[in-house]
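Is this the right way to post C-alpha cells for a design question? Let me know if I should format differently. Anyway, here goes:
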C-alpha cells in the first residue's frame, strides 16, 4: 500500500515523491509474466536510486545556510529528477501501463522545470518568488503520486 502524503514544506518535497517511487510498484519476483516482473524490478531499482539522490540533495538544500549551497542542492535535485525521468523512460512497461509510465516521465520532467524556476529565484535572492513556486511543486508532487497509484493498480493486477 502506498503511504499518503499531505502537503509538506518546501524543505524536501522530492523525498516524499522518491519514497513513493521506490515503493510504488510492488516487489519484484512475485510471479506473473516476465515483462511485468522485469518492469517491476527495473522500476524498483530506478525508484531507489532516485530516493537516494533526492534525499542527499534535499539535505544539501535544507542544510545550507547560504544561497550558494541551496543553489547547489537545487541543482542536485534537478539532476536527480532528470536522471529518474531518463531511467523511467527507458523501462519497458507492460502494455496496460505504457500510458502511465509515460505520464510519470512527463511529470518528473515538469517537476525538474519547477525546480529550475525555484533555483532561478534563489540565485536572484527573490525569496517571494521562490515561495510563490511552492504550490507548483506541491501540485506536481500530487500528480506524480496519482500517476503512481494508477501505475501500481495496473502493474500489480
Amino acid at each position: 500500500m502506498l503511504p499518503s502524503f499531505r502537503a509538506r514544506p518546501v524543505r524536501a518535497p522530492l523525498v516524499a515523491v522518491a519514497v513513493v517511487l521506490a515503493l510504488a510498484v510492488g516487489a519484484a519476483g512475485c510471479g506473473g509474466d516476465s515483462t511485468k516482473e522485469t518492469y517491476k524490478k527495473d522500476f524498483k531499482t530506478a525508484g531507489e536510486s532516485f530516493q537516494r539522490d533526492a534525499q542527499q540533495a534535499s539535505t544539501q538544500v535544507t542544510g545550507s545556510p547560504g544561497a550558494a549551497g541551496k543553489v547547489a542542492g537545487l541543482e542536485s535535485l534537478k539532476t536527480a529528477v532528470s536522471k529518474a525521468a531518463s531511467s523511467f523512460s527507458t523501462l519497458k512497461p507492460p502494455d496496460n501501463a505504457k500510458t502511465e509510465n509515460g505520464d510519470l516521465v512527463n511529470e518528473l520532467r515538469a517537476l525538474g522545470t519547477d525546480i529550475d524556476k525555484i533555483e532561478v529565484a534563489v540565485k536572484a535572492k527573490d525569496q517571494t518568488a521562490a515561495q510563490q513556486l511552492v504550490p507548483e511543486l506541491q501540485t506536481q508532487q500530487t500528480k506524480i503520486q496519482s500517476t503512481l497509484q494508477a501505475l501500481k493498480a495496473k502493474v500489480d493486477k
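Format looks fine. Someone answered above. Worth noting: The two ends are 13 Å apart (CA to CA). Residues 1-12, 26-31 have pLDDT under 50 and may be disordered.
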